[in-house]
Amino acid sequence: MYCQNIEENKQINNQISIVDKQQQFTQNQQVQSPFLMNQKQDSQYPSSASDYKLISGLGSGYFGIVWKVQVLTGPHKGEFVAVKKIDMDKQTDSKMDEIRKKMLLLNVLNHPSLLPYKIAFVTGKELWVVFSIMDGGSMELLLKNMYTQGIKDINLLATIIKETLLGIEYLHQNNQIHRDIKSANILLDSEGKIALSDFGLTTKLKKNKKHNTAVGSVCWMAPEVLDDNIFYDTKADIWSLGITAYELAYGKPPHSECPTIKAVLNILNEDPPRLNKEDGWEDSFQEFIEACLQKEPAHRKTATELLQMKFFKLAKNKEYIKEKIIKKLDPLDKRIDPQVKTMAEQELKTSKSVSQNKIQWDFTESTENPDYMGDLDTQEGDSKINKKMQQFNAHRNDLASKQNGEKPNQKKCSENYDEFQLGEEEK
């Protein structure tokens, strides 16, 4: 959908003023997703930045640092949660459009193998998105700190991969492609629960259509995603899962030692990776890897078909994960990437107080059905909260003009907002 500039959007939306918007959205009420409405024990989280205390950085994601935060008020006072802060002033119009669609998606995700979302609110120039804290950390951290040569416990591998695959199956059944499956996005909590996270690149698979935008982290990307001339669908996630399984088994993905361009060429031109038979892996695990890592997408099994494979008979429960992993872990703060710690410390020192005139951004209007995944990338889906997004953009630009003493640029955003995303080492 082509986006007009801000002044044109104001006219389309019947000249709704910023004052009207502030009156409507600065009430001290929380924004609850349909997911949370079905889980009352997760309700009533604060909707103001002043009601949270930033503790430390946990990691970095598609839109910035993910924080460990303590709730200061309300029924969840004292609880630790994770917060993703997004600085709106640093986002282009196309990124703002992308963020809006991702928030719509978070509103309707409802599966135990996907990271639970609590609340989202805008305070000052920042969007805060609050999640359950997964204090076991990511599988990537686990590989760096505990299993540097990979996880050799086949039951543990089967358990982690199965829980991840259940989340992928749910997304695929609802025509969503994750597009960034890797160990860094598989999280673990203190009770041994596994959850797939980071939906920054997740997109709707439109009816009878495929995608051809190359996004993701290079070493995990399927050949068809890297090839500009080939369209892809949910089978791209299956390839990424196979690479992630290989990564969990050996501690790193194939081609991780190569420069980006070399890695791309290897993925496109070489045979798919396979487990080393001399390492004595279970036949069922090798069969699973082969089922995922087929060059031709049509030859890969679906998520549902994969779950029926013999390999997953080896899977255990979260108590097994707790016994084998959680009890052996150092505190999360000691396992965080030093670079993330430094970034977080610098941000804490340089951050300025934000306005307490909260601009409440309501993401719950997409549907009343918590399981509805909807046409979030269509004009119909956009119209649900398009008016509020345009109001927020107008407010953002109004603030910029006041601060700079000049009229802000009124940019237009294109329909194709996806850009090629390199792996973490290239960002």
Q: What fraction, in percent, of the residue positions are helical?
A: 25-40%
Which fold does the CATH topology of the largest domain refer to? Phosphorylase Kinase, domain 1
CATH class of the largest domain: Alpha Beta
CATH architectural category of the largest domain:
2-Layer Sandwich
Shape: globular
Mean pLDDT across residues: 74
Supply Rg: 22 Å
Overall number of strands: 10
N-to-C span:
28 Å
Unreliable stretches covering 5 or more consecutive residues: 1-42, 353-393, 406-427
Count of individual domains: 2
Percent of residues in beta strands? 5-15%
CATH 4th-level superfamily of the largest domain? Phosphorylase Kinase, domain 1
Number of helices, counting only DSSP H or I runs of 4 residues or more:
15
SSE topology string: HHHEEEHEEEHHEEEEHHHHHHHHH
Please identify the structural class as seen in this structure. Answer: alpha+beta
Domain Protein kinase: 52-312
Region (Disordered): 347-427
GO cellular component, one term: serine/threonine protein kinase complex
GO molecular function: ATP binding; protein kinase activity; protein serine/threonine kinase activator activity
